[in-house]
């Protein structure tokens, strides 16, 4: 990613202080505006005290700013319901940006509520505000449960969680060290983050089924700085390569090339960073975290899907994983992540009432969105483990166990963004001033 391009975007989009119409002192009586929530509203008067900069005070918009911890719903910060646009990137070597036909298709997409970009942009702004707080406040010594609650309480409040209309997109991934993905604590987990750890924070936000899937990595010791740099660079290279009519295999090749140009020195030993070969990015469909297409992160050798391409209108999670270990993951450890199976068996018999009622609860509370055991606790389910295992055995629910690089001492990192392949340009909707 050329830094100049990123900087242009950053100056155009300062999402840290959303400028909005001023909130009336006692709220507007809108539904969901509890006293506690309004008490979090803090006005930023810092710019109205004096006319030091020569700009008359009347010309300065008042700002409502996010609280700490973040608890102000985004519809209160963006009263006109227009949310910040992500990083817009031109498609290289095409005339799509100026094409009248492409611009018309984009105008039509904006009018249709099911393709309106405000849903995904609202989810993305929630992601940026929640992760800004998380990045500053995740510290060694915290329990994994405290970290998960910090992120999930923020997400629920900012997205104004409302049944299946808006909420958490998938379980908060907090995978540590050799665990690359799909760890989140279950109830009773006492694991604590340590200062030698490398943690992948992967969380999701959805609005009307449009899911933002974005992740970053944190380390607390300089040993792993280069590993994180490698993976951030590789993800940005993947994002740059992505586009309409681009072959999936071309993205894998570029990502691996960038990833494997990095070395990490640990206690006098040099490791070449490896792209984790059996992990990938993916398309995203409404209420469906895996839309059906995978985005490889290594060069593909003669597969049948060699000619599969990205298409106009699709949403993608571009994610890459680097490892100092084997560069492949296996499923290992206690499972926390689950989702209704993509293809439900045509006929089945559940002998236990508990399994039938758990299935109904999952359908009602999560639909096809992934969930974790803590989210079952959250909706009031109790003693559900036997029933959950039955649903997995019957292929009604799919389990997603932790994904681990089994080489002793392996360290892994991840960066991920959600992008939209709009008719006229590529939008990196989850881009922020952090990554
Ligand atoms: C599965 C279950 C979840 C999708 C990627 C991913 C987190 O590894 C095709 C390509 C949440 C997400 C997913 F609970 N997975 N992105 N962020 N995990 S995946 C996948 O299963 S399927 C990658
Ligand atoms: Mn993710
Ligand atoms: Mn993903």
Automatic annotation (TrEMBL):
- Principal location class: cytoplasm
Per the record's keyword annotation, is Hydrolase included, yes or no?
A: yes
Read off the SUPFAM superfamilies from this record.
Answer: Creatinase/aminopeptidase, Winged helix' DNA-binding domain
* List of residues binding a divalent metal cation 1: 202, 213, 416
Residue span, Peptidase M24 domain: 119-320
* The reaction(s) this protein catalyses: Release of N-terminal amino acids, preferentially methionine, from peptides and arylamides
Keywords from the UniProt entry = Aminopeptidase, Cytoplasm, Hydrolase, Metal-binding, Protease
The lineage's top-level taxon is Eukaryota
Q: Where is the composition biased (Polar residues)?
A: 1-19, 31-40
Q: Broadest EC class?
A: hydrolase
**Compositional bias per record (Acidic residues), positions renumbered to this chain:** 45-55
GO MF, one annotated term: metal ion binding
Enzyme Commission no: 3.4.11.18
Ranges where the record places region Disordered? 1-75
Q: Where in the cell is it found?
A: Cytoplasm
HAMAP family recorded for this chain?
MetAP_2_euk
**Protein purpose:** Cotranslationally removes the N-terminal methionine from nascent proteins. The N-terminal methionine is often cleaved when the second residue in the primary sequence is small and uncharged (Met-Ala-, Cys, Gly, Pro, Ser, Thr, or Val).
Q: What is this protein called?
A: Methionine aminopeptidase 2
Q: Source species, please? A: Kockovaella imperatae
């Amino acid at each position: 990613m050329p830094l100049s391009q990123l900087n242009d975007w950053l100056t155009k989009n300062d999402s840290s202080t959303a400028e909005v119409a001023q909130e009336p002192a006692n709220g507007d009586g809108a539904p969901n505006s509890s006293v506690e929530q309004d008490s979090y509203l803090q006005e930023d008067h810092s710019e109205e005290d004096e006319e030091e900069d020569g700009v008359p005070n009347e010309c300065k918009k008042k700002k409502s700013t996010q609280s700490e911890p973040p608890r102000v719903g985004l519809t209160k910060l963006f009263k006109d319901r227009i949310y910040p646009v992500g990083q817009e990137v031109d498609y290289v070597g095409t005339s799509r940006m100026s094409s009248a036909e492409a611009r018309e298709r984009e105008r039509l997409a904006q009018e249709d509520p099911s393709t309106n970009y405000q849903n995904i942009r609202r989810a993305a702004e929630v992601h940026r505000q929640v992760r800004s707080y998380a990045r500053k406040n995740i510290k060694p010594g915290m329990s994994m449960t405290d970290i998960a609650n910090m992120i999930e309480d923020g997400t629920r409040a900012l997205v104004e969680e409302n049944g299946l209309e808006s909420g958490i997109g998938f379980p908060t991934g907090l995978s540590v060290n050799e665990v690359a993905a799909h760890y989140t604590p279950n109830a009773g987990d006492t694991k604590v983050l340590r200062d030698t750890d490398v943690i992948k924070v992967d969380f999701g936000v959805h609005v009307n089924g449009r899911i933002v899937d974005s992740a970053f990595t944190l380390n607390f010791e300089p040993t792993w700085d280069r590993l994180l740099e490698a993976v951030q660079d590789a993800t940005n290279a993947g994002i740059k390569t992505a586009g309409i009519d681009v072959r999936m295999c071309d993205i894998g090749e570029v990502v691996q090339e960038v990833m494997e140009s990095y070395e990490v020195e640990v206690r006098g030993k040099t490791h070449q960073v490896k792209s984790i070969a059996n992990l990938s990015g993916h398309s995203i469909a409404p209420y469906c975290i895996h839309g059906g297409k995978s985005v490889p992160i290594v060069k593909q050798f003669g597969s049948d899907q060699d000619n599969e391409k990205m298409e106009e209108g699709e949403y993608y999670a571009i994610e890459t994983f680097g490892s100092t270990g084997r560069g492949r993951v296996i499923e290992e450890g206690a499972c926390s992540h689950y989702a209704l199976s993509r293809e439900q068996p045509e006929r089945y018999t559940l002998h236990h009432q508990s399994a039938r009622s758990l299935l109904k609860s999952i359908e009602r509370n999560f639909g096809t969105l992934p969930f974790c055991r803590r989210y079952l606790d959250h909706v009031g389910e109790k003693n559900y483990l036997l029933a959950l295992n039955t649903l997995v055995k019957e292929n009604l629910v799919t389990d997603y166990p932790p994904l681990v690089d089994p080489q002793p001492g392996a360290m892994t990192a991840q960066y991920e963004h959600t992008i939209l392949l709009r008719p006229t340009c590529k939008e990196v909707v989850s881009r922020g001033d952090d990554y």
